[in-house]
Amino acid sequence: CHPxxxxxxxxxxxxxGDAMTRQSCDTDVAVYFDAALKALPAAGTAWISPFVTDVxxxxxxxxxxxxxxxxxxxxxxxxxxxxxxxxxALAMFHQGKHGGGTVANRFDAFASFRTTIDVGDSGWxxxxxxxxxxxxxxxxxxxEGASQGVHESPAFSVWxxxxxxEFCVYDFYARTGRSADADRVLKLFTGSRDNLPAGAxxxxxxxxxxxxxxxxxxxxxxxxxxxxxxxxxxxxxxxENSGRNVIYTRRMTTGEFVHFSxxxxxxxxxxxxxxxxxxxxxxxxxxxxxxxxP
Length: 294
Known about the structure:
The protein is α/β, with parallel strands linked by helices. The protein is built from 12 helices and 9 strands.
């Protein structure tokens, strides 16, 4: 196993502090269990490692290219592509505590610059669809916060904690042959409403924004890979970690988000944004973004 994935490690995510034991390790992912999860019957948790490996392979294949070549010196490196492979992602799992999920990424010193997802649950059954969604969701945060060799997610204040993840989760299920899960989350996400971005009331993000974007782009993740690539080329950054990498300097306006999304899609999406986001979309912001990022 890679040196970044030791046999035991203390969970450093969100100050959890739990002793974690490595259950499996391959060229993509090292999976860790806490003591309570490790004590469960192995037959009931055997699905976890191959599932997480499938998730991370999908993320690397879909979002692992870098539009701008970047030198990322150790310990962040060895390079921009594929989130620093051959360094694996670390996936830490807990039984009965730390409910939900969180992440650290390759630019976080407290994580020793490791790509890490961390999920806690009380029902580690292969039939637990929500748990599967949580695992994929946390991997999607790695994409928005660490792809293209750049730290942070400028659109986080626009789409919040889950709206981008809905695109990402659905795309994973749909394109890896998990049709039952794809159908399940399609229904769930289509019915979801959020007061995002600021000013919006009951916006149907998946139904009116991300699903059309996914379909228009050929029913795959290419449009969002282009979006993240454009961000890495044109959105303002500054150096961090003693100059080893760059981090975005600020969050985006909604108009900037729609403008960069339009560039990724190859067409003006402002009318779609006005329909999807209502008062959350400002034509003046969009026009200013076109001026600022021609």
